[in-house]
Amino acid sequence: MLRGISPLLSPQLLETLYRMGHHDEIIFGDAHFPGESCNDTIIRADGLRIDDLLNAILPLFVLDHVIEQPVMMMGPLPEDKANPTIAADYQKVHDGYAEIVNKHYPETSPIAQVDKYDFYDRTRKAFAVVMTGDVRIYANLILAKGVTTW
Prior knowledge:
The chain is of the alpha/beta class and about 150 residues long. It has six helices and six strands. The protein has a single domain, classed as RbsD-like fold (3-Layer(aba) Sandwich).
């Protein structure tokens, strides 16, 4: 264990975050996300929710200030937007992520929505995919890394 670093962050995840360069993206996939089908670099975080990981990572991780929206979520399909239960669940996940991002980076632009199939395309190009145990629908998230300054 290291002081000041959350025990939720595995050595593999810490190494990956360290190795990423500016503009690199890391995907946080929910328990149902097809990460293994989309990317060869997979980090397992079974049993963990994405918002818990986000809260642990953001004190160590600089969000990209060059791109307009460095935090992105998979947007729901039109038929899911029309379902009041799914729409409410999505909004709850979004609001939770927004609260965490704003706590660490209050100047960051609002979380962007990425079309489901565009999200998969981004996953193919991402630096790595973290597969979590999060079972909430549309909990998938992308973070774009920025330049670390001291």
